[in-house]
Structures are given as C-alpha cells and as structure tokens.
Write a structure and sequence with these properties.
- Keywords: ANK repeat, Repeat.
- By secondary structure, the chain is of the alpha+beta class.
- The chain has a single domain, classed as Serine Threonine Protein Phosphatase 5, Tetratricopeptide repeat (Alpha Horseshoe).
- It is about 30% helix and about 10% strand.
- The chain contains six helices and two strands.
- It is globular and about 40 Å long.
Length: about 150
C-alpha cells in the first residue's frame, strides 16, 4: 500500500544511509546481529552522573527476523530503490543479503544489477562479508565464484 502512494519515497534513507531495501536484505534466512547506539532517557529526578553523554548512550544489538523477505525486496526494487545504494559504511543490500545467507534475495539483487565486486569502507566484498558472518558455502560460491548452484 505504501509503495503505491506517490508521496512515499521508497528509497528514503536513515541517518546511516540505510534504505528499506537494506533492512529487507539483512532479514534473511538467519538473524544478522546489528550493532548500534541506543539512547537511554534519564530517569526523572535522578542526577546525570555521566558527564560525557547525556542522555546516556549504550551499545545495543538487534537481529533480523529469521525468515525471508524476498517479496519485500522485489517490491522495493520494482519501486525504483537502487540495488547498489550504499549505507555510510559502504555496504549494499547485497552485502547484507550475503551475510544473512538468503540465496533468493542475493539472486534478486544480482538480477537487478547489484555489483558483486562492490567494496565497503573496510575493503570487504559481499562474499567476504558473508564469510565473516558465517553464511554458507553456497553463498560464497554464488558471489565469489559467480556460479549458480543447483
């Protein structure tokens, strides 16, 4: 419904450059742990003992749902979200699909022009990001060897 509304920008970005396509791609066959800073509100009436940050900041983790989001990825790509849009850390949706191990999303992104040779700011290709995140050998084969598995 939202994508059918002309006022909705399907390619809008968060502060860190994430699009809905990045989120859909990282929510693949297994959970991918995302790290971020969560801002904690001060308790009313309690003095702030932390002088460096206010409100307090702490590291938090959240994971993608352990189910595929192929339909969402397909809809976002059809709505014009670029397959190679990058986050601030230079990662594309293909990096995140590779990390999550979702072969269907990887194929969808590749079919829509996502570059398998796209480096993030740490110099990692999607297949290297997949290895780093424990994705299977099939993901590495499709991205590194560029070979389809039956």
């Amino acid at each position: 419904m939202l994508l059918a509304d002309e006022r909705v920008d399907a390619a809008c970005r968060s502060q860190n450059g994430w699009t809905a396509l990045h989120w859909a791609a990282c929510s693949g066959n297994r959970a991918v742990v995302m790290y971020g800073v969560e801002r904690e509100q001060e308790e009313p009436g309690k003095p702030d003992t932390d002088t460096e940050t206010s409100p307090k900041e702490r590291l938090s983790m959240s994971g993608g749902e352990a189910k595929g989001h192929e339909e969402t990825v397909a809809l976002l790509l059809k709505a014009g979200v670029p397959a190679d849009s990058r986050t601030e850390d230079g990662r594309t949706a293909l990096h995140w699909a590779a990390a999550s191990g979702n072969m269907n999303i990887i194929r969808l992104l590749r079919d829509h022009g996502a570059a398998v040779g796209c480096l993030d700011v740490n110099g990692k290709l999607p297949w290297q990001f997949a290895v780093e995140n424990g994705a299977g050998a099939d993901v590495v084969a499709v991205l590194f060897l560029r070979r389809e598995l039956l």
